[in-house]
Amino acid sequence: MERKKQKTPPTQQLATEPDPPHPPSTRLPPEILHQIFSLYDLLSPLDYVDSVFDLLAASMVCREWYQAARPLIPDSHIRCPFTNQSSAKYLVRLRRFSSLLSTSQELGLPYCAEVNTIWIAVNAFLGSPFADNDDSDRSPRDLYTAPEDRNALFKILDLTLPTGLELYVGITPKNHPPERLAARAHFLSQLHPYLANVCNLSLRFPPIKQPADVHLSNLVRAAQATLTRVTLLGVPDPLTHEALILCTNVRSAKIFGGDARATGRILCGWRGLRKVRLTWQQGRISDAIAGLDAACSTLEDVYIAGRSLVGEAEASEVTSALESVVSRCERLKYLEVGKVLMPSLSFSYIDDAVLRALARGCRDLEQLTLTAGRGLTGAKMWDDVGKPRWPKLKCLEVENEMVVDEFVERVVLECEALEMVVVKVKMDNNSGVRRALEMRGFVGDGKGCWKRPEA
Amino acid sequence: MSDPANITLVTMDGTTFTVPSAYLHRSKLVQDWLRSEGDKQAMEVKHVTPFVLQGVLNFCEIHAEDTSEPLADPADPTKPFEADPRDDAFRGMPDDQLLQFTMAADILQIPELVRLTAQEMASRIDGKSPDQIRAMFNPDDLAEEDVDSDNEMGEVGEEGAISK
Fold first, then answer.
1. Would the CB atoms of B114 and A60 count as touching at under 8 Å?
2. ipTM score here?
3. Do A63 and B121 touch (CB under 8 A)?
4. What is the pTM of this model?
5. Exposure of B145 by Cβ count < 10 A (0-12 exposed, 13-18 middle, 19+ buried)?
């Protein structure tokens, strides 16, 4: 390489000569900024939070950086920046996020208002890790916390006033040292004022029964007036359980695990419930279903995932409870109940009695899925009920080979809004179901899925 | 052009560099210039300082004999970035120089160098606060006309002042 004016031999090491006194503009063009910011991995389940925070920081550097970085941050990652943080990075991230939010507020950026849900590991704010020989009491979220960590969390809460809180409650062993119990009580009491804004509360309890927790139950009571969405995992302590029952404004609930009877009791209190997802309840699932009775007049969407029913007695108990609920759910749009897996492995709790109840009372039904189950055929259904009255039914899935052609045929012919039909029944050219589908303009894919082209 | 085997580049202050054209076969800007204006004496690279151009040419020299297919798009996710020990000098340079090299790589349209410098910039931003990033890269404040023509941040904050 030949260079005139300042001769420097070619080298593979960069020269150390100084820059000119007035270097050219250092405004990186948008495409290069995009190139840089695109390198942050937002898909990593472990480290995406750090990438989001890096992008947030970059977006606060200057206007051009904001315009390049902001579109790359998914809104969902700002709305709920932490979920299920299981590492020591949780506290570091809290401090960083707190600092970033403070800066964004100084700059007049709207990030604080965009955040709506904060994830809090309660036992991470008890001072020091629980030092005990009983490893079963340890949690990866039992971390040493400094006052700055706590300050960072409350700074975040002050700046964002979140409408959603996700609390990882953690185990509260009886043999916690007193200072740790006091720290927990103090921490929960500090959270108390923020619950007045919360309409979406997620509580993750330990999988085993806990002693009565007056501080946590007080926290739930503080949100009673505003709570409309609740997610529960694990087993609530008795006092929190009672407090949850009193949250009568709940409209949407997800309950994972826990005891079916306790779930049923909670559901009894939620009389305005519209949407419910129950998954893997322990004990008699009919107890949980019976709890929905209180909300019959408002329920629109019911999803209950459990196990296959064993024996006639259990099947009868479950379908009877379900029939009782469904027969009074006039607003029901969606019902999926049973062992919900891929269609060929599923087991539905819907039998002919439940189906009849759906046909008689649920005129808003939009989707009907009939997978394998006990006592489900649909035979003579329309002799009893008259004709299908599901004017809003858009999707019919019949994976149960025992369901008779006649049932499907009538639904296809008489439900005007139907857009998609999935049928497992064997259909030759003379099949009434096939004729009905073709008459209504459905086109099959050869694998049992029929759609109306205009749909 | 008197010597088709070589190309002469002129920087913002008039410093000239004459290097084998083959060094710059990954530079789209240079290749386009050779096709359209190759009969001229020298190619001007107005916005690049001699120091930075020398570094860019060093990179090109190091990679002149690479047989890998030229990178069409530095952001191509199907071609993951792999650190090359020959580029360690670029990874160790000060922040302000890194910024200059990033811009030079963009001006000369050398995707491999764009990718290297972008990767390095991204890794330096890791974990930093906005103030720290500003101190590192000191991006220019915007010109008045840019502020006037761009309302996006103005909508965001009443004062519309994000750049410090």
1. no
2. 0.81
3. no
4. 0.82
5. exposed
